[in-house]
Amino acid sequence: MVTRRPRYDLLIAGGRLVDPRAGRDGRFDLALAGGRVAAVAPRIDPAEAARVHDAEGLMVVPGLIDLHTHVYHSATALGVAPDPLAARSGVTTLVDAGSAGAGTYAGLRDFVIRPAATRVLAYLNISYPGIFAFDRGMMVGEAADRALLSVAHCVAVAEANRDTIVGIKVRMGAGTSGELGLAALDCALDAAERAGLPLMSHIGRPPPSYAAVVDRLRQGDVLTHCFRPAPNAPVDEAGRVLPALRRARERGVLFDIGHGMGAFGFDSAEQAVAEGFAPDIVSSDVHSLCVDGPAYDLAHTMSKLVACGVPIADVLAMATDAPARALRRPDLGHLGEGAVADVTLIAPVPADFPFRDVTGGERRGRWLLRPAGLYRAGTFVAPAARPFEAGHDRPAGGRSDRDNAMEAP
Ligand SMILES: [Zn+2]
């Protein structure tokens, strides 16, 4: 007797598949084999697969990428452990945004990145110690002392770790670059240029001004905290997007949410979106001081953008295709045949949820994007509880989960 081996290891069937790279948004089946995407089609015979995951009522999307997190746990006060965070938020790739500098990167690599089941990449801080003194009631700006900003050390470590370091990070603002101001940004740009990598710049309270920082960024560089509240908001007092931001976008500078503890304001976000200036990328900037609110995680931050009027499919692109491109990792963030089988399942749940920004501002949102598990190179990771979103689901009102998944705006 001959037993035929099924062609596919797994079929994820019946969901609404959204793959922004491929321009797909509709009902498709997804077949996985050997940890890769093997086929995408309106219908694939379940008999061809060893197992079937019924995804009716779910959105099936490329593994989410959180471009701005802090996961150097146990070594920096900011750090949170990557795997529980990733499971809770439906994320398959986390990027640490500058927790480590040249002097501390080996620890991030050996004690966090290598043992993690989640893919972890990193922006290397231009400052030698990385973010070394950020806690409640404690902030010593790592970019305020010129002696710490060694371009040579930064470039050497970036070049020795090309598999995990995806860019250079600098934190610009009164509390972080202090009196050095734009000189800190110039050091970081110099390092990025020499290493041939993109830069991610934080924007905090002035000085320097938002315009002065963004004017220096190059094509492919990322400005994070793009919708922070005033001072240094993306809009002027009349609610108009600053001309410097439009100039930067024309050059190819990328604008990233980076919610965090102090960097997302509903007024800024709504005014910018109303002016046609949606962000390029959505990220959480989750760290120990905002993982229990107001940022929580990437999925929650994405739901907030939906509450600001950004369509769900656009928000999904901002957490998949767009960050993959910013990382120069076109192998990630899509579900084309041959792609690594990183897949996130999301239930769009009708809700009446009081979202909060970093100023205490509140907006009632109509949808929660609830992670319903993920596949990491084809291996299932169960969803974790989200107690901070509990108790706000709207009654179904005759709608099925399938209706919600297919028709969520
Ligand atoms: Zn950060």
Helical element count? 11
Overall 3D form:
globular
Content-based structural category: alpha/beta
- CATH fold description of the largest domain: TIM Barrel
Note the main attributes of this structure:
single chain; 409 residues; alpha/beta; Urease, subunit C, domain 1; TIM Barrel; 2 domains; eight-stranded mixed β-sheet; globular; binds zinc ion
How would you describe this structure to a colleague?
With 409 residues, this protein is α/β, with parallel strands linked by helices. It is 23% helix and 29% strand. The chain contains 11 helices and 17 strands. Strands 1, 2, 3, 4, 5, 15, 16 and 17 form an 8-stranded mixed β-sheet that branches. A 7-stranded parallel β-sheet has the order 6-7-8-11-12-13-14. α2 links the parallel β7 (91-101) and β8 (119-125). α5 (210-216) runs parallel beside α6. The protein is globular, with a radius of gyration of 21 Å. The chain binds zinc ion (ZN). The site of zinc ion (ZN) has 5 residues, from loops. Zinc ion (ZN) is lined by residues 68, 70, 97, 260, 285.
SSE arrangement:
Elements: E1 8-19, E2 24-33, E3 36-41, E4 49-54, E5 59-62, E6 64-69, H1 82-89, E7 91-101, H2 105-113, E8 119-125, E9 134-135, E10 138-139, H3 151-160, E11 165-172, H4 182-195, E12 199-203, H5 210-216, E13 222-224, H6 243-251, E14 254-256, H7 266-274, H8 298-307, H9 312-317, H10 321-326, E15 343-356, E16 362-376, E17 379-381, H11 401-407
Helix pairs in contact: 3-4, 5-6
The structure holds zinc ion.
